[in-house]
Amino acid sequence: MFEKLGIVTNIWAEEINNGARFDALMVEFGANGFTDMEVREGDYLRNSEFGELVEQIESAMPAYTDTEFKVICDAVWTEKPFQTEHRPLFEAFADFTRKAEGLTLSYAMSHPWLSSPTDSEADTQQIIKAKKLAYLLCPERPRLRLVDLNTEGDIDEPAAIATLKHYAALLPDCPMIFAVENARQTATLTLKLAVAGGAKLTYDETNTYRADGTTLNEPDEFWAAVKMADLTSVHFKQKTEDGVLSVVGDGYVDFRAIVGHLKTRGYTGDLLLENTPTLHALQDAIQSRAYLLDERL
Hints:
Structural class: alpha/beta
Order of helices and strands: EHHEHHHHEHEHEHEHEEEHEH
CATH topology: TIM Barrel
Number of helices: 12
Low-confidence stretches: none
């Protein structure tokens, strides 16, 4: 089950802010067996050399139709000839793809999908751009994840479902896995909305726990409601009264129970470590993996 144990790249934030290169960290983690990587949007990413390349590609996107952009993405990854007005730019990305050989990359960002946008057209274009980035990162198995870190209080469920259906239908030329993650709302509610909206769920049980160890909803309630076909990813991080830890270990989250649920139900998606960033993220990830692989778990 742990063949797809990978990481969310925001665990590199401290190292990148300290001068490390995104592509070098990617290669290093891949060489140490972490082959599934979710590229998480954030300042650390945009401040990296890879983030600068991504921004240049975003600026170039309007020069191409959706179909033309898809053709370029496919060609870059398969090393086939392609026509482009921005050859040096896409050749630079081709260099990145060679370093990413053997890895599965996906894309994730914060986005308030649980509440109605104030500018529907701008919101639509933002999701289309995000979907194009997700496809660019992995044409073979593209995935976009959204997490709503802002919306609180009562949720207009029909509106949230309509928003998900709208997002899922965008950019049909680049089909992909579209997912949302539980954050400030209960995992059970997020699951319900995701399924109704045609999206998959990324589950993070740590987000269910408040600082004092109480829960937004009991984990057993979620596990009683979820079907494995509705899950695309499970995030692993640990929380105590001190906050989210830099290494997976003992704390509020019962990883033995989670692993048991996933094993007995035949879960086939990825498992991604999302520890608090440090200047030694690889050592933290290796230690976390050792904890999860302990036979006593």
